[in-house]
Amino acid sequence: MKAIDLLRLGAKALLDRKVRSVLTIVGIMVGSAIILALVASTSGLSAGVQANIEKIGANTIIVRGAGGQFTSGATSSFQLSQQDLPQLKSIPDVISVTPIYSRGVSVSVGGQTVSGSLVGVDLSVLPELYKGIGLAEGSYPSPYDPTSAVIGNGIAFPVVASGNQLVDVNQAVSMKIGTSKTSLTFLVKGILAPYGSALFANVDEDIFVSLQAAQILLKTPYYSSIYVAVDSTDNVAAVQTAIQTLYGTQVNIINAGSIASSISAVTSQITVFLGSIGSVVLFVAAIGIANTMYVAVMERTREIGILKALGFKGAQIMGMFLTEAAITGVVGGVLGTGLGFILAYAMGGSLMFGGGGGFRFGGGSSAATPPPTPVFSPELIIFTLTFPVGMAILAGLYPAWRASKMNIVNALKYE
Known about the structure:
- By secondary structure, the protein is of the alpha+beta class.
- It has 2 domains: 3-53 and 261-413, no CATH class; 60-231, no CATH class.
- It contains 13 helices and 12 strands.
- It has helices at 3-16, 18-54, 84-89, 126-129, 153-156, 211-218, 236-247, 256-299, 301-309, 314-347, 350-353, 378-404, 408-413, and strands at residues 60-65, 94-109, 112-120, 135-138, 148-151, 172-177, 183-192, 197-198, 201-202, 206-209, 225-230, 251-255.
- A hairpin with a 5-residue loop joins strand 6 (172-177) and strand 7 (183-192).
- Helix 8 (256-299) packs parallel to helix 12.
- The longest helix is centred in the C-terminal third of the chain and has 44 residues, at 256-299.
- The radius of gyration is 32 Å and the shape is elongated.
- The model is unreliable at 68-75 and 351-368 (pLDDT under 50).
């Protein structure tokens, strides 16, 4: 018997019992879709985290006072100052230290209020601090200009204004620092190109001023954090140990590379766990296939007897039923893969964060960031297309074998 004949007979058999076939295919489709959607979503989350961390580099260490300094104004007992810079710079393998002031602010923009962060930093090292950052228009203010700033794209094109530009270069904008009721006015010298998040900071909602300007505006000589760049990721652990030895429990140390590794490990475990949930659904669907095929064999006992009487061999009878199972798996796998793509994008970031929100590092708004984009690897797509077919064939093996071993006389006498 030719393969095309097997396909025709298998398809006809499935069409003869449409409702049962559709329900079986739906079970396979749901299992495939769940595997694809959940694994692609967690892979996208991991890739998004890695991309964000790479923006500041895995060789970067962030040092903060143990209690930190937040929008509320609360501070730790130990605070970092200019005196700490040479100590950190003297540690072997450290290539640069970058002090940063950071405080949450509310900005009045075109009658709208936008939350963000005021960040004081040496603007000349900004491209080194945030890899790939650049200006969309304008220029950086002078280090000695306390009244000018360069703003993130999200401040110029805020979500509250549906992404329309509310701030232009050389425009004066007012802001309130923390819980202060006093408004301060600054001049926008430049607008950054869209950048997104870098570790815990949403750069698009930052207002960057020089260190001197931040010190005047915040009325404090103490830094919110110091970014320490190490010459190689291989030396990060040693530098972190040296900083811990130098300060003890007076500081909190954030190792970007360690965060990336930890999150990757967690998301890998979650991927395996969520993928196994989809596999369980497929297993249940396989039991349904076995049950459907077994019932079909019983219902078609007389037909099997007639086919054997006409000269059909056991292998051909078995091939007929396995073809039915394979067609069920193929249709379910293809439809499930398509549904999985839709589900993955529909879920967005809700799998982990209920919509993709993040939190600020260094005191700032809890502005939502775009949800992670699902990652559909070729291996994952091939798996969701072939695994259901394999399970369907395995599920149909026993019923098909039973059909092939039927006695012709007993089958023809079956009512």
